[in-house]
What we know:
Elements: E1 2-7, H1 33-43, E2 50-54, H2 64-73, E3 79-83, H3 91-99, E4 102-108, H4 114-121, H5 126-139, E5 143-149, H6 158-167, E6 172-176, H7 183-186, H8 188-191, H9 195-211, E7 215-219, E8 240-245, E9 248-250, H10 253-260, E10 262-263, E11 280-281, H11 282-287, E12 296-298, E13 304-306
Amino acid sequence: MKALSVHLTDVCNSKCNFCIVDSPHMSADTIVRARVSRFLRENAGQGYEAVNLHGGEATIRKDFLEILDEIKELGYPTVYLQTNGRKLALMKFAEEVVARNVTLFIVSMHGATAQTQDRISLARGSFDQAVKGIRNIKLLGQKVRTNSVVSKDNYTEMPDIVDLCVTHGADHINISALHTSGTALRNFWDVTPRYDEIQPYVLEAVDRAVARNTTVTLEGFPYCSVPGYERYMIDWETNQFKMLYRTFVLDDYEHYMDAFTRVKDARCRGCAHNAKCGGVYKEYAELVGWDEFQPVVTVPDGEQTCA
């Protein structure tokens, strides 16, 4: 899929303790509507299959519906919306968004209970609103992909988060490794778990989704941290995003991530997955180190094992 990706706002109605764009510490928005409109106009008619909108929380922009109208008028086939789902708890608002050609809703679900999710988001009621938002979108006949970021606060709940999301109609479950940037870097030791600690819970979560015939993907994990489950990693070769992030245009988002946010150790050169794996988030490597990562080698019978 070839898509545009637009960072619509720096601010959010939640204050997640691992926010990659550091929304909890943004005192004002840096996003100018004219820059967004120019980016959309410049790329219209260039074969992009969708426009992916995100933030912060895109839905809290006062001109959010107007931006959706603009995208539709420019002829883009569809819109994907990354959201915490809170405003979608209002059916009238959900209906207005769906009417403006949003067909995929990527909803953040970071807890299996209100206690966990509201603690992470520092927003009381955010869990209940997200669940209701998912229900509303499914009632309106649209697709929901949930995204769950694995942190110290929730990693033991990952299998239960999957069960919750599937029960409420999620079509696709995505589980993301914590990107140690923004607010997550400020709170590094409070929010960042080790990969070897979270591994059994992440793999069980994948198994739960598979058992319930639900599409599941993993994002941002070093391949050696999910042994035997590498096939669930998102294939970025077939999902290409050109992104407007604040004032910067990233022609290939995943290439940028590999080049500037993740690193590899010398041992990675001997790994069977070196060509596809993006490595480890650089802040994690600097602060935690490499002791838990071992290259995967292919043995003569074709099976793979850690060195």
